[in-house]
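Hey, can you fold this one?
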Amino acid sequence: MNNFRRRDFLKSSTLFAGATLFSPYLLSCQNPNNKLNIAVIGVGGRGGANYSPILKSENIVAMCDVDDIRAKDGYEKIKSQFPNVKKFTDFRVMYDKMHNEIDAVIISTPDHTHFAPAIIAMELGKHVYMEKPLAHNVWECRTLKKAANYYKIVSQMGNQGHTTNGVRQIKEWYDAGILGEVEEVHAWIGEFNFRPGHYWTLPDSFPPPKNEIPNHLDWDLWLGPAKKRDYNPVYVPKSWRGFFDFGNGQLGDWSCHTLDGPFWTLNLGMPTEVDSYVENRINNHHFVCEKSIVTYNFPKKDERPSVKMKWYEGGFKPEIDPSWPIKELWGGGMIMVGSKNSLITGGRPNNPRLLISDNEWEEFQNNIPEQTIPRLKWGDETPVQEWIDAIKNNYLPESNFNYGADLTEMALLGTLSQRFGAKIIYDSQNMKITNRPDIDAYIKEPAREGWEYGNSIT
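Sure. Predicted structure:
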């Protein structure tokens, strides 16, 4: 496969997609016991959390990972349950050989390699579950959303909090008028813990020095569309999120959880302006900054006033209002400041609480507003089960790509402002940063030769 060119593969994949364009579920209906045939791309790390809930209910027919050591336990776990499962290193080869045997795909790879396996899967008529955040740049978000609708597949972004009772309560309480008007939102996450081999690893120098590529890793495939560079263990397997070429820092990692509640509840849409205060920039704009505050400005809509939302990281936190019955803020969370009442959650929107006295809170819990949003029958944090059920019963999950792409796009605009320490003015309709052409170039990042995509679907 050294001469394998992705653009050539896509010519053939489009032909295969034609057979399933209008009803990709046909394959599943023909499967004994109505079990779906699932391909897993990204077996190590988050992959295990995403495929584990379906080990007993569905069939895993293919598993793919570029790192045999990172994926070793997952390979063995899947193989023990499905002895005939096929193992691959390159997802393009997997699609080429097994497109007729796959109904749906679970993708749990680093942010910069989300787009390619997902877009090909949809071209082939396969349903797609994607680890959050949905994509690595705004153009990818828009294209994935349009592709999911065009190919009529069932999509889901795996931000677990969106399946919870808590996120539904936030919206129900707001809709019932409990908070009043909300013009201010604050969200924060803890400090970076930089240490070797950890989630956030700070290199000794930039660029990190060249190391020998280990035999268990296909470094070229791990890079995927990213610019070619020398291998160093500081990138992989855990700490790629700190490098903006691969991940999107803490904001990109956690916003799909922490900002999910206000984004959904207030129907925020896209900001018109995003600005950042950055403290202690470690390395130009290639690596996460140590501390920052990102400020989003969302325009007024018919149903609500304009909203200012602030994101704090690296140890920064919002000031505590004297009227709130709390003395300190925990490691990560979110506060919606209302004209009647304010609401607080943790880093995920699972357990919202009004910022009122204990007696008032007890009374409120005895008179909670009526549930107007359906709950999931599997309990909290079950996005994979929701996705599977949606495929079998012909509906879209709550965090499908229409929603997931918008939530991610909003987050990525903040990441760009943070990355460059700059104010950006955003024209959402034209998908353009109007005041900074240098930053606008990152709306659709250049891809390495062989990994390019055109603009056909947009």
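The longest strand covers residues 291-298. Let me know if you want another pass with a different chain boundary.
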